[in-house]
Amino acid sequence: MSKFKFLFIFISSILSFFGCKSTQVTKKITKHFDAGFYDSHFTGFLVVDPASNDTIFKYNAHKYFTPASNTKIFTLYTALQVLPEKIPAFKYRIDKDTITIQGTGDPTFLHTFFHDSTALKMAQNFKKVNIIASNLYDEKYGPGWAWEDYDTYFSPERSSFPMYGNVVTVNNKNNLQIIPKALKKNIQYAERKFNRDYNANNFYYPPKSNKTIEIPMVIDSLLIAELWNDLLPGKVFIVNSASKKLDQIAFSVEADSLYKRMMQESDNFLAEQMLILSSSKLSDTLSADKIRNFMLENQLKNLKQKPRWVDGSGLSRYNLFTPTSFVQVLTKLYTDIPRNRLYNLFSSGGEFGTLKNWYAGNSKPYIYAKSGTLGNNYSLSGYLITNSGKTLIFSFMNNHFTKPNNEVKKNMQTVLELLRDHY
To answer: What is the pTM of this model?
Structure first.
């Protein structure tokens, strides 16, 4: 037998082997989908092999779903495309003994996790500090957000110059501790249905509790002035605009630290502010709408199904995305970013983040993904490492189920393990 004929037979055998594996796993997944669990709710699933560009399995992949926090994948992609390695904290100008500072939407200033104090350290060197915090074009809440979530930790108001994560943090482990301290007088021990008055910064903490709770603040110019003047008494003035162009930019934290916490903890506030931050690269007037439209008209113009994308976090049920769109964006990320960095931004199955208690591998993680949960909806999109060493990109979306979330997750895990073990 000639070397060329032998080589031809060898390559054909390899291709046949992998083709057979693909067919087998497709049959197994099809059998699972035919078993009836998904009959009463709406499901979409797409799995591709980026190395061969083959579609391993698809089911309603072109149809639109409510994505919940899977929306943050689009937010992450936007930030990675637009923002530098360090977060632009604010724009500023110095005139003798006066500094004028304008917010960019950076959410890390005095945040209880990031503890960034860039603006404070710079401002304390001047006799007069002008703060511009009114340059956000968007409303404080995203379209379609649930109004009754106004006092919950996962729904802070959006703003151009956030402070303390735009929440009051309260705990009573030893005695009542308040961040920021300036609002301690606004806290009452009281059992109430809501932890804050609807349109006022009056906060309520259960008398018998010792838990740490975060309560969103009502953000307006009066509050911003109060918080700043607690830090730098008598020096800070809230102004509407600058008399001259703000020609310098200060930077705060490493961008990846922000992305990682947003993705792994599914932090809605960070996601919303990240879009606002990204818009600061387009204009001094901040607008999440503007940056979303910019991305859809440029870097994301080749999406097969244009999404209805209305916020950064996925809190809104107005968002509509297809599994195909998520796989397309995940593929862009996979192509552009080194694997170690990319996987480190996502939750890891069985290890940390929102997937800590799900999708655990036998000896190491096999899932790096973003989950998304709203009432009666659960989705998971990301990367799957098979036992054979292949990387697959997938989006698995479930809407309108009445079963417990854990039942849906168990069935999804069965499918993902089939891919892991047989492809």
So the answer is: 0.93
